[in-house]
Every structure is written in C-alpha cells, then in structure tokens.
Design goal:
single chain, alpha+beta, 3 helices
C-alpha cells in the first residue's frame, strides 16, 4: 500500500512540474504587462491609469523645399577618330622613296611614298615626242581643207590621231600618279609597315592615317530618350579615370531603333583642338531628358503604393500622418511631387513600412 502511495506522489510531482513549465511564459508575460500598466499609470505621463503607451519609432525625415530635379542617365561611349584609313598604293611596284616620319602631322595632298615609275616616265616621253608632229599635221590638213585641197575625211583622220595621242598621254600620267602615295586628308601618320626597296601591292598597308581633330563620340541612346536626343543636342562626357567634363554636340543619330538593344546609336563632335583626347578611349556620356528648376521631390523609398494611390507619411505633432500625393518626374533616386505636399512639410523617409496613422515617431536626423 505504501509503495502504491509513493508512486502516486511521484506522479503528482511530475505533473505539477510539467504544468509549471507550460504555464510559466504566460504568467511571466502577464506579470510584465501589469508592471508596464502600473508604470504608465503612475509615471506622470498624463495618460489614464491602466492604458499602455505605444513606443515611438525612430525614423529619418526630410523637410520639403524647392530643388532642381534633373532626369538624366549615363551611357558608355567610344572615342572615334574623325577620319581614319589604311594607306596603300593603287598599283604594284618597288618602293623607291618614303618621305614621311612616323607619328608626324601631314597635310592633304602631301607626298608620302613613291614606287618605281621609270618605265612609265619613258613611255610618257615617247608619246610627248610625237605630239608636235601630230599638231603640225592637223594644222596643215586644216589649211588645205579651207582651200578644198583635201577632203574633210582626211582632216578628221589626223584630228582623231591627235586626240588619241593626247588620251594616251593622259593615261600614262594617270598611271604615274598611281605610283605616288599622297595623304587624302590632314592627319597624323602611324607606324610604317614597309621599307624602301620592298615590293608592294594594293593589298599592302603602308601606314595608317588618322584625323583626330575633331573626334567623334559614339554612344547608345535608351529607347525612352530617342525623341530627346537629336542633331544639335549638347551632351557632357567624361573620360574613364578623369573627373573633367567635356562638352560635345550631337551631329547624327541612327534612323531606327536596334531590335536587340532597343536603343539608338548617336555620334557627337568634340573639337579636340589640342589633340589631347586619343581615339580608342572609353568615355561615359551624361544624357539629360528633362530638368525642372523648382520642384518638390521625395526619395523614392518614402512612397508606399496603396490601392493604386501613392502615399507618404508626414511628421506632425510627434506622430505619423498619411498624405496622398500625385507623382511626376521620376529619377534614379527621387520622385517629383506634383500635388499633395507644400514647402515646409516634414516627410518621413525611413521605416515607412512600419508606419500607421497616429504612430508616435522620433526623428533622428533633424
């Protein structure tokens, strides 16, 4: 019997222990709630006894004032030469002279190199030697024709022979011109790829000629900017690794939007008068679509979308009050407020997802 009572007592103890472990969190919360109620009712807060005060939320805010709001974007750009060409001879031959220095400035029409033209010069001398006799025959036949001493057909024969001779002379001169390599425009010659005495052909690149005054700035235009960037539009670009701003002007835009990139390509001229910018460098272009001088704007993260409405919370009398706004221009970080706010309003910009009407807040940054 005693043994049976002993096991009953052990069971009761275990049951009480388990029940206490289960009920302890609820009793603890109830005790803490009573303490908070007592302290709020007796701590001189001014509230009625037994009513718990809401804890203030720490937030950041901004005071509304007019500012300049710019809708712009940046795009990577390539620096291109105004003109560039690989120079080569129009005919094959042995190079007899190279007149340019590598990296030097040359002018349009300047002779840069020469291939052997001695056979052509000899042929030219031969044809030119026949020219006086051909002219004399035409003069004699013309005089006789006036006296009806020869037929018109005989006169036309010698006249045709003279014209053929003149044409042959012009052809040889044109062939001689092809033995000369001349600059097609003002620019800077690059490194030469051949030496005097080498055999060259039209497929042999002698050197490269580049015009870098001005330079071209080629960059893509996002689809939404396609109607705003037109010939004459001024742009700002910055070279990679440099903080200096350069100003250029658009002179051409592609005629259609690329179906792969959904953008256009445009080119702008930069004078590059001192030739300090070298083609081949990367640059970033700043494109401005719209600028509003006096705008009220809030950070985009301060706006909450509710039932198709745009809501921000204002700080008034220590609490959060919702206000509906009508947004306007949007940039990467800010949104223009067309209606709903005035100068001097304090807009809460952090913790907005925790806010509700009348919630006490404390501003940390003002």
């Amino acid at each position: 019997m005693r043994k049976h009572l002993k096991w009953i007592r052990v069971g009761v103890v275990i049951l009480l222990f388990v029940s206490g472990m289960i009920l302890f969190p609820y009793v603890k919360n109830l005790f803490q709630s009573d303490n908070m109620t007592d302290s709020s009712g007796s701590g001189g807060s001014g509230g009625p006894p037994g009513v718990r005060q809401q804890r203030a939320l720490n937030v950041n805010a901004v005071v509304m004032n007019y500012q300049s709001l710019v809708d712009n974007t940046r795009s990577l750009a390539d620096i291109l030469p105004d003109e560039e060409v690989d120079l080569s001879f129009e005919m094959s031959g042995k190079i007899t002279n190279i007149f340019f220095s590598e990296g030097a400035h040359v002018e349009k029409g300047e002779l840069l190199a020469k291939i052997n033209d001695r056979p052509l010069q000899a042929q030219l001398l031969k044809l030119e030697a026949q020219l006086p006799l051909a002219n004399s025959r035409v003069e004699r036949q013309g005089t006789l024709l006036e006296k009806d001493a020869v037929s018109k057909e005989a006169f036309e024969t010698v006249e045709t022979e003279l014209e053929k001779l003149l044409a042959d002379i012009e052809l040889v001169k044109a062939n001689i011109a092809q033995t000369e390599l001349r600059a097609p425009f003002d620019g800077i010659v690059g490194l030469r790829n051949v030496s005097e005495g080498a055999w060259t052909s039209p497929s042999t690149a002698i050197t490269k000629l580049t015009k870098i005054k001005p330079v071209k700035i080629e960059f893509p235009i996002p689809e939404q900017y396609s109607e705003d960037i037109i010939p004459g539009t001024k742009i700002i670009f910055r070279l990679t690794g440099s903080l200096e701003d350069y100003h250029a002007q658009v002179y051409a835009v592609e005629s259609k939007i690329d179906i792969n990139t959904r953008g256009l390509r445009a080119r702008a001229y930069y004078p590059n008068t001192n030739e300090s910018i070298k083609p081949g460098r990367y640059a970033s272009v700043e494109l401005t679509k719209k600028e509003i001088k006096d705008a009220l704007a809030v950070p985009s993260e301060s706006i909450i979308q509710e039932m198709g409405r745009s809501i921000v919370y204002l700080y008034k009398s220590g609490g959060a009050i919702p206000a509906e706004i009508i947004p306007g221009l949007r940039t990467a970080s800010q949104v223009q407020v067309v209606q709903g706010l005035t100068v001097g309003d304090t807009v809460i910009i952090s913790g907005v997802m925790q806010l509700r009407t009348g919630l006490p807040v404390t501003i940390d940054n003002l």
